[in-house]
Amino acid sequence: MVETIGSRIKSCRKQLHLTQHDLAKRLQGVSHAAISQWESDTTKPNAENLYDLSKVFGCDLAWLLKGGEKTPQIVSYMLNDSVKIPILAQEELEKWDSTQFFDYPRNEYIMTDSNYSDFAFAYKIADDSMLPDFSLGDVVVINPDLSPQPGEFVIARYGKMVVFRKFREAENNEFVLLPLNDDYAHISTNQNETKILGTMVEHRIYRRKR
C-alpha cells in the first residue's frame, strides 16, 4: 500500500514512464518544481490539481487522495497524451534563453499531441507585418531545436526587438528576415545582432468576428 499522496503521485508517474517535467506539461499552471514538492510531501496538491492528476493517471480520485488496499493499474487517458505549450509574451522572448524550461505557472498555453521539443513555445501574432498569411491573434508554435530552411518562418531577436518573419539565406552564412506585408522593412544580419529563437512548426488560426 502506498502511504502518502506524494508517494501515490510518484508511483503513478513512474508507471507511465513520465519525468516530472513531462507530468508538469500535462497539468494546467503547474511547474515541475511543484510536482517535486508534492512527491516529497513538502506541499500537497489542491483539489483542482488532484482532479487533473486523476485524469492524467486514469485513476480514481478518492484513491489518489486517501489511498487503499490495492494500487490501481494506471493508464493515461488525457487528450491522447497531449502536452501543454506556454504562450510567451513579447517581453519574455526579449530575454528568453533557448535552453530554458518553463518551470513556473503559466496563464496562457495551448495543448498539442505533437512531439515537439521540451523547450517549444507558442507566440501570439501581435502586429500586421505578416499579412495576409498571419493575422493579429493567430498563434504559432515554435521549435527552438529546429534550424530553419529557406522559406520557413521563424521567431528572431533583432537587437532588443522580437519579430516573426520568413527566413531567407544570404551570402557568407548570413540571412535575411522578410515580412509578408510590404509596409515593413527587411531585416538583415549585417544590420544588427540577430538571433533565431526557433522555427515555426504549427500555425493556428482562430475564428474571427466579421
The helix content, as a percent range, equals 10-25%
Inertia-based shape? elongated
Strand content: 15-25%
Number of strands: 9
What structural class is derived from the secondary structure elements?
alpha+beta
- Compute the gyration radius: what is it? 21 Å
Order of helices and strands: HHHHHEHEEEEEEEE
* Main beta-sheet strand count, sense and barrel state: 7 strands, antiparallel
For the termini, the CA-CA separation is 58 Å
Q: What does the average pLDDT come to?
A: 84
- Give the helix tally: 6
Spans of at least 5 consecutive residues with low confidence? 76-80
Identify the strand order in the major beta sheet: 3-4-9-5-6-7-8
Quick tags:
alpha+beta; single chain; two-stranded antiparallel sheet; 9 strands; 210 residues; 6 helices; 23% strand
Short recap of the structure:
This protein has 210 residues and is of the alpha+beta class.
